[in-house]
What we know:
- With 185 residues, the chain is an alpha/beta fold.
- It is built from 7 helices and 5 strands, in the order αβαβαβααααββ.
- The protein has a domain at 25-104 and 139-182: Beta-carbonic Anhydrase, Chain A (3-Layer(aba) Sandwich).
- It is 39% helix and 17% strand.
Amino acid sequence: MRRLDEIMNFNEEFVLNKEYLKYTKIRKDNKKIVIVSCMDTRLTELLPKALNIKDGDAKFIKNAGASVIHPFGNTIRSIVIAIYEFDIDEVYIIAHHDCGMSNLDSSKTLEKGYSKGIDKNEVKKIIDSGFDLEKWLKGFNSVNDSVVSTVKSIKNHPLIPRDIKVYGLIIDPTNGKLELVYDDL
């Protein structure tokens, strides 16, 4: 059975049994924060528990490495919308130790794409257009430096109000311990 079929079958039972009801409550304890975290599956349940975050408390934005690599990319867009449309007043960048983006080699990632049938000529066209594909796919050498760089790119963004607090943290995915690396005093 395909994974999609499994998901659809489960979903049918989920709706039929009204299991969704516990997720549709409006919570009054919204902490008005947005959390940018890595997409690592180890953080899916660990991170909210380690922060005492419940449904409705925070907006979560997940991406590879919990980083902002483009000043007008989707992560910044989501943060801006959260600030202006949902009255968010604090942003938390929470990366983690042992991240797959640490020392990621963009050329090796491209090679994996080629082995899956990506057309090298199409990739060359992208590169020839001036887009820095290797930088876009590149990871980072230091999770600490990546968090600080991401915090600063948000703090200095022209669409982010100066009174928005932006914090940088690193979580240990083996035990949930948080380390503060940028405190927006």
